[in-house]
Amino acid sequence: MPWSLRTTLFWDLILGVLGVSAFLTHLGSDLWAVSQYVLSGHYLWATLVLTLLGLSSVVLQVFSWVWMRADPTDLHSSQPSGRCLALLHLLQLGYLYRCMQGLRQGLLVWQQEVPSEFDLAYADFLSMDISMLRLFETFLEKTPQLTLVLAIVLQSGQTEYYQWASICTSFFGISWALLDYHRALRTCLPSKPVPGLGSSVIYFLWNLLLLWPRVLAVALFSALFPRYVTLHFLGLWLVLLFWVWVQGTNFMLDPCSEWLYRAVVATILYFAWFNVTEGRTRDRSIIHVVFLLSDSVLMVITWVTQSAWLPSGILLHILLPASGISFLLGLVLRLVYYRWLHPSRRWEPAEVDGTRGLRCLQLYQLPQNRRMVHLAQNFFPKAWDEAASPWEREVKGVL
């Protein structure tokens, strides 16, 4: 095995271990916070944390189970029987099983002297599903959890050590999931390299800098109007769900699971940008940024007019200007990324047509995660069209 490939596989394995560790650490910090809320008599806060954990876990298990049922029957040769898998998902262990399966396959590939193309492709197949499930879990649980903890801190006027642990693990998990999902999408592009350190850092920073002001604005509104934040979320969520439906998504195999996917996407869009269909990504992205910015500004203005309701001593006179600077800096870094680091360079083949065609045919005979390929086409339509030749697109369409 070439040294560069072995090094890449080693770091992929390390990142996989860190991802599982981050998930378990955040879960532990949430359960720790629940126990402290119960001991201190804040049963409503404990109930809200457990509700977010339970809903996100159920949705994750549903997606994991539906995807496993949709995969080719001969693809997962080493996994347990259908009843055993159903029991694992019923016990809310399906996502962890996928993580363990991905780590086992990654370790198998790394230990092989000359790994087969099938084993490499299968390892990528598993990691892509894990990346997408991690993204769903991030916006269904970690981001709302972070918003809830910040709202509790703003209401109480003090921060406990277990709340700091929840805030730190949430921020780390959110950023990790966004970056990992982006790298998974980039691996689906034909002949496009995985983003390097500079590209990954810029992508990591602009997502984090744009997400933080949105989370703070929702947390401020939640602290001031805890009884109305649910109505605010449902109102915007319905608008975003309608927007997703109008775009005509076709990600899942059946209508019921497709509506579940649209509901999850609408939840993601409440906090951050997520592209779901082909077309002019820039126009839809601008509309979404303006929509969220307007909503966040209105929530902050509402808080400013009623700021006396919140406990004093919280450094909001520093947090609010810092959030504005964070938003502007995030926009600048986003423009830098899409201007110079986005995968839109033209692909120049290094082989003659016959050899290239044979290699393309072999590529599509390997395990291919069509879910992530579909999303990669939506996220990077220009890069995909420029990377694939007409013959390659024709072969892919037939297969």
TrEMBL record:
Superkingdom to which the source organism belongs = Eukaryota
Membrane topology classification:
Multi-pass membrane protein
Under Pfam families, the record lists: XK-related
- Its predominant location is membrane
Localization, UniProt: Cell membrane; Membrane
Listed under GO biological process in this entry are: apoptotic process involved in development; engulfment of apoptotic cell; phosphatidylserine exposure on apoptotic cell surface
A single GO CC term for this protein reads: plasma membrane
This enzyme catalyses: a 1,2-diacyl-sn-glycero-3-phospho-L-serine(in) = a 1,2-diacyl-sn-glycero-3-phospho-L-serine(out)
Q: What is this protein called?
A: XK-related protein
> Which species does this protein come from?
Phyllostomus discolor (pale spear-nosed bat)
* Phylogenetic placement of the source organism: Eukaryota, Metazoa, Chordata, Craniata, Vertebrata
Q: Which gene encodes it?
A: XKR8
